[in-house]
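Here is the promised in-class demo. Please do not try to memorize the tokens; focus on the logic of going from shape to residues.
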């Protein structure tokens, strides 16, 4: 993981700090039934996905690009035209997110970067990392709805290296739990503190 990716600030002072601690992370992991077995399955998934990240992104970008209501979040707010450079920069980070989901320890640095990702979907930081002028906010409801395509499409890629159904199922279930956990964390900036 040594490639330089534009705007990727994992583990740096530039990344946000999560107001949540590791105790809360452990409670959320328990809520989504995320276990040590899932951690092992995710590590295996990272090995399986290593050479397939661009193919996964092609599927996901094809999905987003085929839905005008989604691609608008990467578009000029006046013309509605997608901003190619913005899409490419986000793609680099999105690819790293796939591998980080599988390989990084879910520690404070990981928790902090989930806060950074969350803020980049909201008015707090959207567009700032890439210096673009686009729609200023992605509604939480769209972030939540993307759990399904981001998880459902992954099984096919996890099955491509010849693992048995049981191993593929374990990797896929771990992926689904990890994505759900992250979207739960990404919801934090969208909520009012006293709710």
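The designed amino acids, position by position:
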């Amino acid at each position: 993981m040594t490639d330089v990716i534009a705007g990727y600030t994992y583990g740096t002072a530039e990344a946000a700090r999560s107001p949540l601690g590791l105790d809360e992370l452990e409670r959320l992991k328990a809520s989504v039934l995320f276990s040590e077995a899932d951690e092992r399955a995710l590590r295996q998934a990272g090995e399986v996905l290593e050479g397939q990240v661009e193919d996964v992104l092609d599927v996901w970008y094809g999905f987003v690009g085929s839905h005008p209501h989604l691609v608008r979040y990467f578009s000029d707010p006046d013309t509605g035209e997608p901003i190619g450079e913005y899409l490419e920069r986000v793609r680099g980070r999105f690819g790293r997110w796939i591998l980080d989901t599988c390989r990084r320890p879910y520690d404070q640095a990981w928790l902090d970067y989930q806060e950074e990702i969350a803020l980049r979907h909201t008015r707090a930081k959207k567009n700032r990392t890439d210096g673009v002028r686009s729609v200023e906010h992605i509604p939480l409801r769209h972030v939540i709805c993307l759990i399904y395509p981001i998880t459902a499409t992954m099984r096919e890629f996890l099955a491509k290296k010849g693992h048995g159904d049981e191993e593929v199922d374990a990797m896929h279930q771990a992926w689904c739990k990890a994505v759900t956990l992250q979207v739960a964390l990404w919801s934090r900036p969208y909520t009012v503190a006293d709710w």
